[in-house]
Amino acid sequence: MKPAALKAACLTLNGAEETFPFGPETSVFKVGGKIFALSTLDAEPLKVSLKCDPEVAVRLREAYPAVTPGWHLNKRHWNTVLLDGSVPDRLVREMIEDSYDLIVTQLPRRQQLVLDWPGVSRPAEGDDLSR
């Protein structure tokens, strides 16, 4: 996966934004103000750090040497993926989507609805959306 494809995969998700809180070299992708991906897009080799379910994180690390515990992150909940071609691009996109979903599940229901997130049930007419 190339830097432009990584950036596009992150930004095509509803409500995703690219920010630079750690300086101009580190792209931090957020939804609802919370981080779901980090990468230095002009670095070689290209890497991305993604939030991950702890059990899935361990399985991915065992299956792919290019997947390691998150660098400078909570190693139980974050993986860093070396994008050297050894992890299929399709799987990397799934990992990005899973990271995004983990963050969106933590957002209030109202924000989930605004994001048109498929994981939230649609309100019935007259439902209170203030939650």
Q: Based on helices, strands and strand pairing, what is the structural class?
A: alpha+beta
Question: Strand share of the residues?
Answer: 15-25%
How are the strands of the biggest sheet laid out side by side?
A: 1-2-3-4-6-5
The main β sheet shows up as: 6 strands, antiparallel
SSE succession = HEEEEHEEHH
Rounded to the nearest angstrom, the radius of gyration is: 15 Å
Count of separate DSSP helical elements? 4
Question: Could you tell me how far the N terminus lies from the C terminus, measured between alpha carbons in angstroms?
Answer: 39 Å
Helix content: 25-40%
Number of E-type strands = 6
Low-pLDDT parts are none
Report the principal-axis shape. globular
Mean pLDDT: 91
Description:
- 31% of the residues lie in helices and 21% in strands.
- With 131 residues, the chain is α+β, with helices and mostly antiparallel strands.
- The protein contains 4 helices and 6 strands.
- The protein has a 6-stranded antiparallel sheet, covered by helices on one side.
- It is globular and about 40 Å long.
- 24% of the residues are buried.
- The chain has helices at residues 3-11, 54-63, 89-104, 109-114; strands at 17-19, 27-31, 34-39, 47-51, 67-69, 78-82.
